Amino acid sequence: MNSRLPRNVWITGWVSFFMDVSSEMVYPLVPLFLSSTLGVNKSVVGVIEGIAEASASLLKLFSGVLADRFGKNKLLMGMGYAISVASRPVLALATGWGMVLTARFTDRVGKGIRTAPRDAVIAASAPPERWGLAFGFQRALDTAGAVVGPAVALLVLAVWSTDYRLVFWLSIIPGLLAVALIVLFISADGPSPTIRATFSWSLRGFDRSFPGFLLVIGLFSLGNFSNAFLILKAEQVGMSPAWISGIYLAFNVVYAVVSIPGGMLADRFGKRRMIVGGFSLFAGVYAGFALAAEPWQIAALFLLYGGYMGLTDGVQRAYLATLIPEEQKATGFGLFHLVVGAAILPASLVAGLLWDHLGPAAPFWFGAGLALLSAVAFVGLSRQHPA
Fold it and tell me: Are 49 and 355 in contact (CB under 8 A)?
């Protein structure tokens, strides 16, 4: 597999691996840290996650525009990853939810800066007929890191029960390795246009299906709230923090294993079909979370959710790449991530309010309904683009 991938795709995959080891050591524990150690309610968890993700989305567009304008993909990637690493000590030292918000905001700022340039590097480095494989490989390595991260957290918590702060400190190490890989081994930003266009809100040059795809993704994202609520659901049915880390690890194993085959299937049979199927699977999984009352049911649903992510996450980006002109790749990815991130704030706020006022099942029914609606809308809006 390695010899079939361009150098930048290969290195970018390993950068994502190490950063996700760092991130996923932390992420499954943050809602538990907030609720059990700091004693905040579910609505505050939703506010923190929503603000962090929505803020990052704005920077993804800004970073994409800069990358297309000045061709500084490597620089922006390095800055983004370094900023995320800098958030870890703030989280480890947090004594109130305000510091947790600051840490999560800083982490997401880093993600906002790095994501669009990273995706542009992948698209520029691989031929169009291999975009499904290239993005699938990056998602697979990214998610393999998300397997190792919870595994490390699980081992730490098995010895030092509920010592979340120790896990937060240890997460700094793989983050620094990710930054070092960018500095030392990302050799170029990939092919870039000789003339840098200034940013414009006009979508001239984009495929006519591009605005429709953004609308569908925005609708879907309004029901795709933070995974923190899946973790809180696991806690609500009686899972311990150590077992939650374990099942989150298993979720990411499935995600990683499915990502590359999912990308290859999309290249062969059509990205649009994979996306529609993914929306439908998401709806079924969220309906299952709404109904689940036993830990084993939650465990099975996390595995199915990993299958959904592996089949669609990289494929959505590969499909998007077919709709964007070459000279505006990073800007197009930035717009995509802007739409996704802007929806996470209202999605998480609504999820928290539904949970607090109507019960744990309500946010999952809401998400399942919007996913089905998105599948129908995508079929109608993208019919002219057979990718």
Answer: no
Q: Is 185 exposed, middle or buried (0-12, 13-18, 19+ CB in 10 A)?
A: middle
| Strand ranges, E, within 304-354 | none
**Could you identify the residue written with the tokens 């620094």?**
176
CA distances from 228 to 57, 220, 301, 371 (A): 18, 18, 15, 18
Q: Which residues of 313-344 are buried (b: 16+ CB within 10 A; e: fewer)?
A: bbbbbbbbbbbbbeebbbbbbbbbbbbbbbbb
pTM of the model: 0.68
Q: Which fold has domain 2-187+205-381?
A: Growth Hormone; Chain: A; (1.20.1250)
pLDDT digits (tens, 9 = 90+) for 263-307: 788 888 778 888 888 899 999 999 999 998 888 899 999 999 999
Q: What is the pLDDT of residues 75-102, one digit of tens each?
A: 888 888 999 999 999 988 888 888 888 8
For residues 250 and 255, give the distance between their C-alpha atoms in angstroms, rounded to a whole number: 9
Q: Which residue has the tokens 């709806």?
A: 283
